[in-house]
Amino acid sequence: MKTTRQQQDATRRQIVASAVDLMTRQGFDGTTMKDIARAAGIGDATIYKYFPTKDRIVLGYLDAVVQQALADTLQTPGFTGYQLQEKLQRLTDAVLERLLPDREFVAQVRTLAQRSPLTLLAEPLAARQALREAVSSFLEAAEAAGEIEPCDFKGMAGGLYTDYLAGVVAYWLADTSEEFADTTQLVDLSLGVLAQTLRSGLVNRVLQLGGFVLRSQMARLAQHGSSLLGVLHMARQAMDSAPRTAAAPTAPPDPTAARARRKPRTTNTKKTP
């Protein structure tokens, strides 16, 4: 009997959920494809029709998280009226909210990525393209509203955001502050610097800042501490005091109001299998 698309999607979700549960308890290396198939209630050979390797299951998990986070973001009440910084903050928060229940597993994924970076980076992730398109659409909307100066690097900005998001997740995994307050501050400050730069119309600075902060310094986000937040504070202050070239720029969003719109990220423990 031929399975429907809905049945196939349900099986894929079950495989991923079973893999997350098993790998959280047993580790990536301690979990076999046979273990996952049996936990998912499918045949040992059937699992390979959906995922050829454990690595691909991990990538399937990441793709699903990003797609769900994008849907959560776009369904936020009043989202179309958000300014650029608020939209990027909401998307970043949505990803972390989706990752939160599986935080122990996500830490294993990060270790796997460090051990075999080419394995994960070489795979074509639908999530990367979805994030690039989303960020590009946010920039287009900000341009149309006169919030930022026109820019010709929307595609590159979307790619940089995926690197930025990976760095935020690494920082979040090392964050021991109450309710991940340091991560919240990191996101507010870094995206505030980006939004202020775009509002100023200083395209060259955007390219330099984006390349320096979002690519070259991503590794530093994993080294949790106050020094990075201090650098971002200084960068934000420098951008606030820099002369603006844009005519009659819109006022930056009220961070208090922006945070009020966002769901708090509370501490969470992995549910008992």
Shape, principal axes of CA atoms = globular
Total count of strands: 0
What amount of the residues lies in strands? under 5%
Low-confidence stretches: 269-273
Radius of gyration: 20 Å
The residue-averaged pLDDT reads 81
Structural class computed from helices and strand pairing: mainly alpha
Question: What's the number of structural domains?
Answer: 2
Taking the sheet with the most strands, its summary is: none
- How widely separated are the two ends? 33 Å
As a percent range, the share of helical residues equals 55-70%
Number of helices: 14
H/E element order: HHHHHHHHHHHHHH
Assembly type: single chain
Describe the structure.
It is a single chain. This protein is mostly helical and 273 residues long. It folds into two domains: 1-52, Arc Repressor Mutant, subunit A, CATH 1.10.10; 53-261, no CATH class. It has helices spanning 5-26, 33-40, 47-50, 54-74, 84-99, 103-115, 117-121, 126-144, 154-174, 181-200, 203-216, 218-221, 226-241, 255-261. Helix 9 runs parallel beside helix 11 (203-216).
List the helices and strands and how they pair.
Blueprint: H1 5-26, H2 33-40, H3 47-50, H4 54-74, H5 84-99, H6 103-115, H7 117-121, H8 126-144, H9 154-174, H10 181-200, H11 203-216, H12 218-221, H13 226-241, H14 255-261
Helix pairs in contact: 1-2, 1-4, 4-5, 4-8, 5-10, 8-9, 9-11, 10-11, 10-13
Q: In short, what is this structure?
A:
The chain is mostly helical. It has helices at 5-26, 33-40, 47-50, 54-74, 84-99, 103-115, 117-121, 126-144, 154-174, 181-200, 203-216, 218-221, 226-241, 255-261.
